[in-house]
């Protein structure tokens, strides 16, 4: 650190401007509210960790607290006589935290998501610098720390804090630690300006050790980030501070699993730069945090994203004119938001930044793009000095009390817009699906959403599903108005005569007239029935939202009438209408009762009610017995009887009908009989 202070003072003499220049193009923000909080009663925030539920666990000084993604405090505790420095989450959802006790010894503890400490233990040596921890796939704990006198202490514990192995590497400083998927331990450090990288097996045996020197003495390493990153192939990304001449720059290296340098780059010139932490994102991107200082200006916190190949994606400074800022830890959530912690002056600081880093409208965050150049490193295998020790952990009794953070929000930007969804009809279900978040509700819906692209679907029973994609811009309202296409239509049915029974697809739905009968779209079968009438049948189609109208004219069921007379040529009238002269054969008429009249030369010789049976033939026999006498008889023949033979001599009301002339002859005959007796 002394070398860094000397360099900073030298900059005041030789350097006139800051090395980082504006001009980086920042893409649109993807998530809602972003902020910068200052903790007035905490001197720094040393480390962060994200829970599986998306909450944030933070430690700083002797305090530990949980907060939601908007910075709201869930719980907060203070732990007596310990200075906390590092935090990692286990596969079970618990957390391992490391710190330094008041006597300088190492303290490791496991805590639950509620802040309760499950165990806490102290271990041997005196810690003089920051602490780095890493967990293997079985949640075994590997710890690296600067110890006094100058050296790096590497310690492995099992998941319950029990001692496994320990070794110290004298002459090494500024440890940077990682564990690969096979449980191998990768420890990087600085030794007399060189970068040293050690690979150890899970049981503590040295696999190889290499030293990396800049070619032709072009500079030297002074410190490393506390964490390194290991990819699936076993390659490691190491960040640190590289000094060349009067300038201190950020350096990032990628070294494969055999220790070969694949690329090495430095970022920023003519300034004092330090990297404190590295974090990897979901796409393999590298996020780093530290600080940048320039002539006549306090250090500013620095956060930068690199591609997996080391190219700059974005770079921002976080700082104000009135105090020094430094980023000590960075983490990335599942939505690619960046959380950074550190200090502002003598107070703790936590910031939530969007995936593109920049916050328009937040004065404390500024876009600055560093210059990038490659450096050549020469490597050689070494055999580092090492001493092995065994430690018996000491159970530490600690006191936990409630802590009440005093939080001041110095910046807040809501990168969101409004999305309004309406539908006809209303009360439709709305599902809004973004890349990182989803929402739901019913129409009409008005909701504040983070800026970005969304898939929107509107669903209602008996209506076709509506889907669309919209882009919501910051500070603007995007409106969607949709008329849902129904999966039904309506049916109106009228008939002549009325009161016909209506069946649709063999289901009775009422009697005519019918209006606004809701039916599913598609083809249906209609039948209209009424006694005495032929059944009406029709296939019809229901179109979405439309009304289909059907007018059914029912045809009366019919039978046949045959009128015979002993005297041909008699005039026949049915229900008042002339239908011809006898003999009448197979006159078709509606079934039911009818009024029949038979006339001879305008005089009625017969009248009466007859019944026409459906599908049959009704036969009327008119017997003309003289100029003044007639008699009739009726019969019904089956229409299916091919011979149409008479079924007998059933007669209309009155049976055999006699004319008035016959009655007169009978009366005269009776008068003659009486006269003869007298």
From TrEMBL:
Show the InterPro entries listed in the entry.
PEGA
Start and end residues of each stretch annotated as Disordered: 627-656
Q: Which domain of life is it from?
A: Archaea
Report domain PEGA positions. Answer: 417-486, 489-556, 559-623
Bias (Low complexity) ranges: 627-655
Q: Which PANTHER family match?
A: S-LAYER-LIKE PROTEIN
Q: What is this protein called?
A: PEGA domain-containing protein
